[in-house]
Design brief:
By secondary structure, the protein is α/β, with parallel strands linked by helices. The protein has one domain: FAD/NAD(P)-binding domain (3-Layer(bba) Sandwich). It is about 35% helix and about 25% strand. The strands form four sheets. Strands 4, 6, 7, 8, 15, 16, 17, 18 and 19 form a nine-stranded mixed sheet that branches. The protein is globular, with a radius of gyration of 21 Å.
Length: about 425
């Protein structure tokens, strides 16, 4: 069976989040006939809807860093812990966390950092080109971001990581109390330690970006089917995509269905260890001030962004094996309290609450890979909370795989084979 798809081949993309739509747009621009399947409108079925809207192009470390076991235990004992694993989910996710812990050690950690650097080094260039092609480049800014620490100790402990980023070509500079007060006058005066990361940015609204890409895709001839894909069946010369409305045959398929991608992989006899990394946030439509640049609060696991919809404050990582587990309403209460601690004058009236299931792999590296058991199936999933950040780069890598282009050695890090 051919491993290359010529122009004009029909490709089904399962999933209309930012990763799926970006993938479809790249493929359509390469000359493929693309159809996107999702029961929800573009961007509204998963974490692409109301995420932080940040482009984190200088995060070069996986979530599992050296010493994470002790750090994680300390986090879970905190009142407002940025790491949460509810009830029996701890037992259900034991195999996942075993792999997660293994990522923090030796070569595993170094390989994960190298893979994240590969993605980060191309994030802005690829995103800029993608948004320019879609006619919405003006909705992204490369603003930098303030990383603001609660304590002098955590600021000091972060310096080796910042040094590593600088060595890799991602510069930053310290922010003292005077700098923070000048650039962030509405932030509480207790915050006096920070770093300004230059390789960071944001978009005006993450949902708008998906919609704009979807519109550009349609202008390129792409189509959408508002249906849930229930089964994929390989054939000798194609693949059946079955939905509740019937089935269609395509030359190839891309699985970009977030956490649900693991079920498609399982049907092909492949292990794709995705967990739902659930993020919570509040959006304040009229906060009473305007934030100059996006923020990250490492001690609290929180990202803060000024978006068209308002000021968005959220984050955290609540892991669940079951993505349909009910949301934890107490998280919003904690987020509300924390928001006022950070910005004492914040107007919280009309706050919009939201929770999204981010598809997370234990090594923090997405799978951008051909199936191991079918040359007609590809995966682009598992981006965790870097879906927006790495969407354009992963779409370009996926497109080059489908086109049969020679891959640089660095792209081997994204193969599905590492879990099988």
């Amino acid at each position: 069976m051919s491993t290359k798809f010529d122009k004009g081949a029909s490709i089904a993309v399962i999933g209309a989040g930012i990763v799926g739509v970006a993938s479809a747009f790249d493929l359509a621009r390469r000359g493929y006939e693309v159809t996107v399947f999702d029961p929800a409108p573009p961007g509204q079925g998963g974490p692409s809807w109301r995420n932080a809207g940040q482009i984190g192009a200088s995060d070069l470390q996986p979530l599992s860093t050296p010493g994470i076991a002790l750090t994680g235990l300390r986090m879970m004992l905190q009142k407002d812990s940025p790491l949460r694993i509810p009830g029996l989910e701890k037992l259900r996710l034991l195999p996942w966390f075993w792999r997660f812990m293994a990522t923090s050690r030796g070569d595993n950690y170094r390989h994960a950092c190298a893979a994240m650097t590969t993605l980060a080094s191309q994030a802005f260039e690829d995103m800029s080109q993608m948004l320019s092609a879609a006619g919405c480049a003006g909705k992204m800014r490369r603003s930098g971001a303030g990383f603001i620490y609660d304590r002098a100790q955590s600021f000091a402990a972060s310096q080796p990581a910042w040094a590593m980023k600088a060595e890799a070509g991602f510069p930053s500079s310290p922010m003292n109390r005077e700098v923070i007060a000048a650039r962030l006058p509405d932030m509480d005066a207790r915050f006096s330690h920070g770093m300004l990361s230059e390789n960071w940015g944001d978009v005006s609204d993450p949902l708008e970006i998906v919609r704009d890409l979807a519109g550009a895709l349609q202008k390129c001839g792409g189509t959408f089917r508002h249906s849930k894909v229930t089964r994929l069946t390989p054939l000798a010369n194609g693949i059946f995509v079955e939905t509740e409305a019937g089935r269609e045959i395509f030359d190839g398929t891309v699985v970009a269905a977030g956490v649900a991608s693991r079920q498609f992989a399982k049907a092909f006899g492949e292990n794709l260890p995705l967990a739902a990394e659930r993020g919570y946030n509040l959006t304040f439509p009229d906060p009473g001030f305007r934030l100059e640049l996006p923020l990250v609060m490492p001690d609290r696991g929180i990202a803060i962004t000024q978006l068209g919809e308002g000021l968005r404050i959220g984050g955290w990582a609540e892991y669940a094996a079951n993505p349909n587990r009910p949301e934890n309403r107490s998280c919003y209460e904690a987020m509300s309290r924390i928001s006022s601690e950070i910005f004492p004058g914040l107007n919280q009236s009309g706050a919009i609450s939201w929770m999204g299931n981010r598809p997370s792999l234990p090594d923090s590296i997405p799978v951008i890979s051909r199936s191991l058991n079918s040359n007609r199936v590809f995966y682009n999933c598992g981006h965790g909370h870097y879906g927006l950040s790495n969407s354009a780069t992963s779409a370009r890598i996926l497109g080059s795989l489908i086109a049969g282009e020679e891959q640089p050695p660095a792209n081997r890090a994204f193969t599905l084979r590492r879990f099988n």
